Amino acid sequence: MQGKVLIVTGALGALGKVVAETASARGARVAGIDHAPSQVSATPERIEIGGVDLSDPAQAKTAVEAAAKHFGRLDAVINIAGGFAFESVGDGDIKTWQRLYALNVLTALNTSRAALPHLAASGTGRIVNIGATGALQAGSGMGPYAASKAGVHRLTEALANEWKGKVTVNAVLPSIIDTKANRADMPKADFSKWVTPQELAEVILFLASDAASGVTGALIPVGGRV
């Protein structure tokens, strides 16, 4: 990661913070983009761009261009921004489907589209998306979430084919991530079977590295202990 310039969306969330901090510790320069307000001042190594609705193409482009201007280039985009809701198909609200599509698919789409010219110019451009193992076979109550994450999977494959030879595009498919929020929601679960943010960050940053130059269009399950 030494010297690489990364955009991490959802950088103020449980997973985003770990990915951004780990990348920074390994010598990367990181632009964190989040819907929440920025928490730190910009430095030559780190910038946070807060208050951004990445489901809006114009806002996504403005944020990406700000990151590229600050660092002079972009080498990788890690699309972590997203959302979850547990809701049955028959009794649920159509607005949940629309909201999760916006949070999970449009955020990744808009950020990637805005960054692709910069990533292609890098020569080692990388996009890493966050899918879900739960989107491979949706269970009860998982319809809207699984459908939106399946959209992320197909987006990953389409971009990988369209930009083959210029930018690699892959996705990690976590099982349940061990976060405070998930522990609160599922207090009786066996947390030892969940994937930790650090474990997930290791796979994400490998895919964003030079070592992963031969991998593109891959959907990689992470945390299969559940």
Give an overview of the whole structure.
With 226 residues, this protein is α/β, with parallel strands linked by helices. The chain is built from 6 helices and 7 strands; from the N terminus they run βαββαβαβαβααβ. It has helices at 14-25, 57-71, 94-122, 143-162, 180-185, 197-207; strands at 5-9, 29-33, 46-49, 76-79, 125-130, 167-174, 219-222. It has a 7-stranded parallel β-sheet, with helices on both faces. β1, α1 (14-25) and β2 form a beta-alpha-beta unit. α1 (14-25) crosses α6 (197-207) and α2 runs parallel beside α3.
**SS elements, strand count:** 7
The percent range for strand residues is: 15-25%
* Overall body shape: globular
Query: What is the averaged pLDDT score?
Result: 95
Notable features of this structure?
single chain, 226 residues, alpha/beta, 7-stranded parallel β-sheet, 6 helices, 7 strands, 41% helix, globular, NAD(P)-bd_dom_sf, NAD(P)-dependent dehydrogenase (Short-subunit alcohol dehydrogenase family)
SSE map:
Blueprint (H helix, E strand, L loop, with lengths): L4 E5 L4 H12 L3 E5 L12 E4 L7 H15 L4 E4 L14 H29 L2 E6 L12 H20 L4 E8 L5 H6 L11 H11 L11 E4 L4
Parallel strand pairs: 1-2, 1-4, 2-3, 4-5, 5-6, 6-7
Helix pairs in contact: 1-6, 2-3, 3-4
Short description:
With 226 residues, the chain is α/β, with parallel strands linked by helices.
